[in-house]
């Protein structure tokens, strides 16, 4: 595995960190890889059981993957209906009747490959004894909640925010402030880890989080080669880079959350989970407080923050 020369191996020990925010896709779960592997299984099925040539089978599955990635969700119809339609669109005329069956098989394989590895489950359980944990994910409501539900991610997190449930998406600082607000922690006590510099890292920096950690995609890790941290533009420059989410715990400073201070008393079950699920109810509850988010947090930079506030003051999503 190539390394990023000059990457910081451990975050500043003087940081006061109580909370860790995870990006979902390609950070906690290997979405791109799992979707591609599931499509490859469908291609095998088309070739083996439905008389497709290997070439046509691969082309059909690849076309589905492209269409799915372009538009994984259509809010006007149910997920199953939308994705079956995508299969129908890419199947040749003689085989369009297979669309629903292929969608079912693809979904089954998808979640088999997306499942959290045991080591990641253990990492989250261990981290949660010390820190508050959150997910901040960009994406359409139904598609993101399907992943969260099917992978049973609820049980590991104190806070789960899906951008389409809210008026903002990463890198808008307000989605980070909303997560901080939900958990009652200042931004300077939070670490954000994610795979996208322009959303996870830039947003974390602009929100003045305590630290940001970049987990490049495997393809990017191969390209990175001999580049150094100084080669990354300052507005998206993370505090640390890891090649696996499992490397995160070793670089964290001791927790300052109530869990870290009183681990024996910190029963996970005592803490009410905050999510943007059922957005009508949740949204109405959070909405009156939204105008306060920026003024509350923009002046509360943590003394230990490594970031200067070089961002503009726009509250709009980009
Ligand atoms: Mg991601």
Automatic annotation (TrEMBL):
Keywords: Hydrolase, Magnesium. The keyword Hydrolase applies. InterPro entries: HAD-like_hydrolase, HAD-like_sf, HAD-SF_hydro_IA, HAD-SF_hydro_IA_CTE7, HAD_sf. One of its GO terms (biological process) is N-acetylneuraminate biosynthetic process. SUPFAM superfamilies: HAD-like. One of its GO terms (molecular function) is N-acylneuraminate-9-phosphatase activity. Its cofactor is Mg(2+). Residues 256-275, 297-318 are annotated as: Disordered. This is N-acylneuraminate-9-phosphatase. It comes from Anopheles coluzzii (African malaria mosquito). The lineage of its organism: Eukaryota, Metazoa, Ecdysozoa, Arthropoda, Hexapoda.
């Amino acid at each position: 595995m190539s390394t990023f020369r000059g990457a910081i191996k451990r975050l500043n020990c003087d940081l006061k960190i109580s909370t860790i925010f995870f990006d979902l896709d390609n950070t906690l779960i290997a979405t791109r890889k799992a979707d591609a592997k599931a499509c490859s299984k469908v291609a095998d099925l088309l070739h083996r059981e439905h008389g497709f040539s290997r070439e046509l089978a691969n082309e059909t599955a690849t076309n589905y993957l492209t269409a799915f990635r372009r538009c994984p969700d259509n809010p006007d119809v149910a997920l199953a209906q939308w994705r079956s339609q995508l299969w129908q669109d890419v199947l040749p005329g003689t085989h369009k009747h297979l669309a629903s069956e292929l969608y079912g098989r693809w979904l089954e394989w998808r979640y088999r490959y997306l499942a959290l590895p045991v080591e990641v489950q253990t990492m989250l359980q261990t981290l949660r004894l010390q820190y508050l944990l959150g997910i901040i994910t960009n994406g359409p409501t139904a598609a993101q909640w399907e992943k969260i539900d099917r992978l049973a991610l609820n049980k590991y997190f104190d806070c789960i925010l899906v951008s389409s449930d809210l008026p903002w998406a990463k890198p808008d600082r307000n989605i980070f402030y909303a997560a901080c607000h939900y958990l009652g922690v200042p931004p300077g006590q939070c670490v954000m880890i994610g795979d996208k510099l322009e959303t996870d890292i830039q947003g974390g920096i602009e929100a003045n989080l305590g630290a940001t950690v970049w987990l490049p995609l495997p393809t990017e890790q191969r390209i990175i080669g001999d580049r150094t941290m100084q080669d990354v533009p300052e507005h998206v420059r993370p505090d640390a880079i890891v090649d696996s989410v499992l490397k995160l715990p070793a670089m964290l400073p001791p927790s300052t959350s109530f869990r870290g201070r009183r681990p024996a008393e910190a029963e996970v079950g005592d803490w009410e989970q905050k999510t943007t699920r059922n957005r009508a109810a949740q949204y109405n509850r959070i909405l009156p407080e939204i105008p306060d988010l920026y003024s509350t947090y923009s002046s509360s930079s943590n003394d230990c923050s490594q970031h200067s506030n070089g961002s503009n003051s726009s509250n709009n999503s980009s």
